[in-house]
Amino acid sequence: MAVPLVVGIDGSEASLEAVDWAADEALRHEAPLHLLHAAADQEAPDLVAAASERVRKSAPAVRLSSEVLYEDAASALIGKGRNALALVLGSRGLGDLAGLLLGSVSLAVAAHADCPVVVVRGGVEHGHGRFGSVVVGVEDGEGSATALQFAFREAHVRRCRLVAVHAWSVPVGSPGPPGLSGYALQALRRPPAQVLADALRGPAQRYQDVPVSSEVVEGAARQALLDAASSADLLVVGARRRHGHVGLQLGLVNHAVLHHAPCPIVVVPQI
Prior knowledge:
Layout: E1 5-8, H1 13-29, E2 33-38, H2 44-58, E3 64-69, H3 73-80, E4 86-90, H4 104-112, E5 117-120, E6 133-137, H5 145-158, E7 161-168, H6 182-187, H7 192-206, E8 212-218, H8 221-229, E9 234-241, E10 248-249, H9 252-260, E11 265-269
Parallel strand pairs: 1-2, 1-4, 2-3, 4-5, 6-7, 6-9, 7-8, 9-11
Antiparallel strand pairs: 5-11, 9-10
């Protein structure tokens, strides 16, 4: 049985936008689409029926299923994520306070799911492949390996370019010979451009049809990613698993892009 793409619905406009995005994504990957509504309310069957009809009109070729679970929405979605290609969520839900930048359910799922979590953000121009690019954040070490594989696969099925962004900065107080620039000082350890090239080598060989652009940026990773995402169809970031704890390490960068990304964003757990 094919692994489905699961989208959470609650009747909000944001969740309907997530349904539309997920239907397009299911077509790209030739994957089944599963609609999930988790709440104890009498309107649940009507919400599921309306969302199902929306998919049938926009993407009639998609293999569609649905269900209603009478339990906490975050728990239900996290549970379904154990056997999902990805979980797709709206950026805001019906029950979220106006002051929150990202819905509480979406944030909880992004922090605890075992599969990639997509939060559908941004305007219409970011939802239909108009920019022709997928952006992925690359950090030093192996923490970005799974995210890179996901991003290359997305660029492959979308037939678009991949923009790999590596941001770096010299730690405050780092000793070094006088007169060296920040880049030269960092290069004494490992050149930032080499960090990015090493990370890209393996997946680029596997997906040779994907054109790749590399961006090495001196400065904060969150701002570098948000800037790159302004002209992207999708932003992909990785998340490390917590040692000895359930869930993922959603650090400052992940939180920033989840709250402020101008396009749909995917958080990919490190394997």
